[in-house]
Amino acid sequence: MKNKILILGATLVVALSLITELQQKNTQNTNYTANLVKQNQSPAVFYKKQCGFCHTPEELIAPDMNKIKTKYLEKFKSKDAFIKAVTNFVKNPDKKNAIYTDGIENFMDMPKMPFKEDQLKAVAEYIYNTEKL
Q1: Tens of pLDDT along the chain (133 residues)?
Q2: Is residue 24 part of a domain?
Q3: pTM, whole model, 2 decimals?
Q4: Helices marked H in the chain
Q5: Which of 9, 14, 62, 118 has a CA between 20 and 30 Å from the CA of residue 97?
């Protein structure tokens, strides 16, 4: 019985440590401001620094961007429609309006991002054009 309590306690400590780490990463991501994003930054660099931070294949903080992209491509057939839909969602993220809903309850709400619309459109186009993110 004592061993089971020790194992349960250790498991709880590990789980709390992971939650704290994820919260810190999420806080770091949401602390970006539009001023920190250089206007001449390439969409690839912008994506890596601003989107790829959370949207990783490991899905620790947010869904894998490749999965999100697949769902958007299923619903929005043209490049322009895809870019518009992604841009609109990032400007006003809301789980109720999400296109990618698989496992959505497992992730934190995406915060509103302080980026300019032209930056969002450029990175949405980068996502559209990039085979593997």
Answers
A1: 655 555 554 555 455 555 655 555 544 444 444 445 556 779 999 999 999 989 999 998 999 999 999 999 999 999 999 999 999 999 999 888 899 988 788 888 888 888 999 999 999 999 999 999 9
A2: no
A3: 0.70
A4: 2-30, 43-46, 65-75, 79-91, 117-129
A5: 118
